[in-house]
Design goal:
The structure is a single chain. The strands form five sheets. The protein has a seven-stranded parallel β-sheet, sandwiched between helices. It has 13 helices and 17 strands. 37% of the residues lie in helices and 17% in strands. It has two domains: 212 residues, Rossmann fold; 205 residues, Glycogen Phosphorylase B (Rossmann fold), CATH 3.40.50.2000. It holds the Pfam family Glycos_transf_1. Its EC number is 2.4.-.-.
Length: 430
């Protein structure tokens, strides 16, 4: 499917907010093998200034006429509902329309950005309407990125184009709350309008390591995302993280993803311990895909970069440290400082001391104290113990407004969610 993005950009300056929105939409389309994006910009837009996603060779660039008889068209800001347009307005509109007709003839859908809204795009608004008469089967999607304007009582052509619907066009606004006002501005039924939120690309500045991980693991949709860094030794009790997360998934119907940012230990053979951890998780309710070890990535089999672990803490919402022994627990502070619910082993003195200051949730696991070791015996069973604490943790996360906001931002406003739930459905032909 060929999708044209009609922007009429003269440049790609990122300080222009719509440029950033279009960049996000290009990323969404490029991630979908069924879509070929086409950028429609003015003939004055320098492609030498491209950067980031705009450099992707899969994007086809088509320049639209912006001159008549070798003289550049000068745009005028026609924001009024009626009045007079400049003498060459309709001649210029016909020139642009003829070029648009040619540039759109093999396109499946055309997405416009502020073409119908902005006063300085009135000429292009009229040109698109002229072109559509020769392309009656081509559907259009018209994005409005600013608050809809009040519909005037009286309008006159061509100014009325900013307040009139175009056939075979869906009108789009960033929030559902603005749909009624949007429909009123364009004098169109609300049923022809849709909300497509702006997206938050949490990987836009991600490190190479996190990007590599994101290709293997779904970082965005899980309700519970747990990051546990450490040397792959039994003393870190990796399997206890898996068993608690299994109880959360099994008893409270939450999707869970554990990412162990691990590196080898001389204490135990890595593959053997990984197998045990996965088996423990499965026994308590997890699936194999719910657990991932960064050491399974060839480039990071001997360790995952610390700065990348800190990036992951910005995405995660639950940190569990059931470690048998700790002298301090720096990762606890790192996870807490990046907005995670903290669950610690109460039997470890350093974790108890630190956790009380952080208002952490405590659980009891085997531990090494000063001069002696402790071993837990659960009644009526460890499964019952895990279930009880899993319920407490789920409630803590539900009632914490920061955790809730962080989780919703990660799940609900990513480019992936916006694409699959809002934008892509609009592109499909009825």
């Amino acid at each position: 499917m060929k999708v044209a993005l009609l922007t009429m950009f003269n440049g790609l300056d990122s300080t222009y907010s719509i440029v950033n929105v279009v960049a996000e939409q290009l990323k969404m389309m490029l991630d979908d093998e069924d879509v070929t994006p086409i950028m429609l910009v003015t003939e004055n837009c320098s492609l030498n200034e491209r950067y980031g996603v705009f450099l992707d060779e899969r994007i086809e660039w088509r320049k639209v006429a912006n001159s008549v008889n070798d003289k550049q068209i000068h745009w005028h800001d026609y924001t009024e509902a009626k009045g007079e347009v400049h003498d060459t307005f309709f001649n210029e509109a016909e020139t642009v329309a003829a070029d648009l007709t040619e540039k759109l003839k093999d396109v499946d859908v055309c997405v416009m950005h502020d073409i119908h809204y902005q006063g300085w795009h009135l000429l292009h608004n009229i040109a698109v309407r002229m072109a559509q008469k020769k392309l009656p089967q081509l559907p259009f999607i018209a994005f409005t990125h600013s608050a809809p304007v009040s519909r005037p009582k009286e309008t006159a052509w061509p100014f009325s184009a900013r307040f009139s619907p175009m056939p075979n066009t869906t009108y789009v606004y960033p929030t559902q709350s603005g749909i009624s006002a949007l429909a009123e501005q364009y004098d169109t039924p609300e049923g022809t309008c849709r909300a497509v939120n702006n997206s938050l690309d949490l990987l836009s500045n991600a490190s190479e390591a996190v990007l590599a991980l994101a290709e293997k693991v779904n970082l965005f949709t899980p309700d519970i995302l747990v990051i546990y860094p450490g040397r792959l030794t039994t003393g870190k009790r990796f399997e206890k993280v898996a068993s608690l997360c299994g109880a959360i998934k099994k008893h409270y119907e939450k999707t869970v993803q554990i990412i162990y940012c691990d590196f080898p230990s001389a204490d135990i053979e890595s593959d053997r311990y990984k197998t045990f951890i996965r088996h423990t998780g499965k026994e308590h309710g997890l699936e194999n895909e719910d657990i991932f070890f960064t050491s399974d990535l060839d480039s990071y089999k001997y360790g995952f970069p610390r700065e990348s672990v800190l990036e992951l803490f910005q995405l995660s919402n639950l940190f569990i440290c059931p470690s048998f022994s700790e002298s301090f627990g720096l990762t606890v502070l790192e996870a807490a400082g990046r907005g995670n619910i903290i669950v610690l082993n109460e039997r470890v003195p350093a974790l108890e001391e630190l956790g009380k200051k952080l208002h952490a949730h405590f659980m009891c696991w085997d531990a090494r104290n000063f001069g002696f070791d402790t071993f837990e015996d659960y009644h009526p069973s460890e499964e019952a113990y895990l279930k009880d604490h899993a319920g407490i943790i789920v409630n803590l996360m539900k009632e914490n407004p920061v955790i809730h906001a962080k989780t919703i931002a990660r799940q609900r406003y990513t480019p992936q969610w916006i694409w699959h739930h809002q934008l892509k459905p609009l592109l499909k032909k009825e």
